[in-house]
Amino acid sequence: GAGGLRVQWAAVGGATGYRVRVSTDGFAWSEPIPVSGTSFDLPALGHGSVRYARVAAGNAGGFGPESTPVGGCVAASGQAPLLLVDGFDRRDRFVKELEKGIDPPAVEGV
Q: Are 66 and 55 in contact (CB under 8 A)?
């Protein structure tokens, strides 16, 4: 929204809560912030402010690994058209290469 960023994610089956960590540079991260739903707002950010976030799902057994960091920048219009994930731009949660019919790279034996 205008003057802020919203981080949203799909619900994880069996999760009873989530933790969000935020960064201004993608390297130094905040302490985990507990979240009960599937979105987290970063309000009151100035035009051009950049923030990164990563999310972990949890239940009675603890929290799982954190997501890949995503980054966003507050646009002058109040709604940025792109999301940065691992340095690649996206307009939504779908990878652009898949939309073009190109298979994503696979990593095996790791």
A: yes
For residue 19, give the 3-state DSSP assignment. strand
Neighbours of 110 (CB within 10 A): 3
User: Tokens representing 103?
Assistant: 């298979």
The span from the CA of 32 to the CA of 14, in Å, is 20
Structure tokens at 42: 């970063």
- For the record, the structure tokens of 78 come out as 């109040």
Q: Is residue 52 within 8 Å of 25, Cβ to Cβ?
A: yes
pTM: 0.71
Q: Which amino acid belongs to residue 14? A: G
One pLDDT digit (tens) per residue for the chain, 110 residues: 457 888 889 999 999 999 999 998 888 999 999 999 999 998 888 888 888 899 999 999 999 999 988 888 887 775 655 555 565 555 555 555 444 444 443 333 33
